[in-house]
Input
Amino acid sequence: MRHVARKRFGQHFLTDERVIQSIIAAIAPRPDDNIVEIGPGLGALTGPLLERVRHLHVIELDRDLCAQLRAQHSAERFTVHEGDALRFDFSRLPGPLRVVGNLPYNISTPLLFHLAGFAARCVDLHFMLQKEVVDRMVAVPSSPDYGRLSIMLQYRFRLERLLIVTPASFRPAPKVQSAIVRLLPHPADQLKAASQTDFARLVAKAFSMRRKTLRNALQGMISAAELAGLGIDPGLRPEALPVHAFIAIANHISIKGR
Output
């Protein structure tokens, strides 16, 4: 397929056959899997996936690429959903879902949050992302990369970084390294937040002022005395707290607000 990469879509097309085969091996597609590929681009993963599954769904924003993909593959085994993955309703697709893709780096974080809302319908998710984003996803407490993205995704998924990918594996080459990450949804009975809304609001507020202590960052939501009562030092910074501590604080706020 001939196509000029469009900057506004954040297009960097994977061309490294070794990396392509590593991704396919990590996914290990089976014939009856309900796989949806986000951002198929020039079809680097699309062809190998279609060799292994009976039907493949893809979501692509670039209408020229959509037309080329439809021309290349039989509609009996291949469905193109033309549009923005950020607005796509993944509940429309047959489940349980396996989601894959080389995600556009300019929308990767909001897209990950959007997909987290459909985690209960997913078996797993495999993505190529900017390495910096993957570092934040898998970061541990008290490390420089640990923050809102780490907590919100680690609450919903078990995360595994699989492979580092150099810029030379793409056309055009990005200015940053990339990484492949696997996301495995936690079972529903492991999601302990009483209110997902309260949990998300708490984490967002805590890291809007990450250099402040919990006492100051969470003013108006919970007092220092209440934090101490939960066994949490109000003098700590948000980046020091593990996910379960944020769950405990959020549940206290939810109970208090009833």
Q: What stands out?
A: The first strand starts at residue 13 and ends at 14.
